[in-house]
UniProtKB/TrEMBL annotation:
Taxonomic lineage: Eukaryota, Metazoa, Ecdysozoa, Arthropoda, Hexapoda
Protein family according to the UniProt entry: Belongs to the AB hydrolase superfamily. Lipase family.
Cellular localization per UniProt: Secreted
GO terms of biological process kind: lipid catabolic process
Domain Lipase: 24-267
Main location: secreted
Highest taxon of source: Eukaryota
GO cellular component: a single term: extracellular space
Name under which the protein is recorded: Pancreatic lipase-related protein 2-like
Amino acid sequence: MLIFLACSAFAEPINRNGRNAGTNDYFLYTRRNRATAQTLVIDNVNSITTSNFDAKCSTIVAIHGWVDDSHSEFNQAIKNAYLEKNDVNIIMVDWSPLSQGSYTAAVSGVPKVGRDLGQFISFLTTTTGASLDNVHLIGFSLGAHVAGNAGRALGGKVARITGLDPAGPLWAGNSNCLKASDAVYVEVIHSDGSLVGLGIPYAVGDVDFFPNGGTGQPGCSDMFCNHNRAWELFAATVTFNNLVANQCANMIQVATNSCRGQQLHMGNDQLNKRGSGLYRVNTKAKYPF
C-alpha cells in the first residue's frame, strides 16, 4: 500500500531488529516451505546451499512498496498464485527499515535498495548457477522502481520485470524511475494514474497496460483501492491468464476506450513474453476480474 503525504522532511529510516538502515532481507518460499520462510543472506554461501532454492526452477522476486513489508497482502497474493501453479522459487525482498520511514526518504533510498538487490541476485546466480533468463522481478508501487534499479544493476539482463502501478509522486523526471531498458522485457500495469492518483500516468515500459483506462477501477471508491488493484489483477492473471487487452495508438484511445489494435494478454507468468506499446483491457469489479 502507498499513502502519499505531501510532507517534506526526511525522517530517519526505522532501524528494526538492530539492522542497518537500508539493508534488505531476502526470504525464500518454495513448495517445500510454503508457510515458513528460509532466510537467504548475501555473501553467505551456506544460507543458499542449505536452503530449498532450486536453480532449475524459475525465480520470482517480489518487492513491496512504501509502509509495507514482506508480509503485505501483495506479497502473499503473489506467493500463493505462483506456488499453486508451479514449482518456483519465491523470494520476498523486505526493505521495511527504509520503506517505513517518510515517503521522501523512501523515494531517495530506492536506488540503493535496488542496487543491493541486484548485487544479491548476482551472488545468488553465481552461487547456484541459476540464470538471469529465469528471473522475474515483480514490484508494487515504490517496489516497481526498486525492481528497475535492480535490473539496471544487472545490465538489463533479467528476463522480465513487472511494475505494478509504479509510484507516481516525486517520480516525474526522476532518472531512477523504472525504464524499458531495465530488463529484457518490462511490463507495467497502471491502475491509479489520474492527476491526483498514486501511480505514474504515462508509459515507462516495453508494454504498458491501462486497465479500465488506468485511472479508476470498477468496484473502487478511493485511490488506495485503485492502486492496489494492479497487484490484484496481476495475481489473477498468474492463475487464469484471463485478461486480454487491445493495443492503442495513443493515450486518447486509452482514455476513450477506443483501442482496436492487436491483442495481448495482460500479466501472467510467462518469462519469454514479448510485446511493445500501449494497451487497454476492461475488467470486472471482483476477482478474478
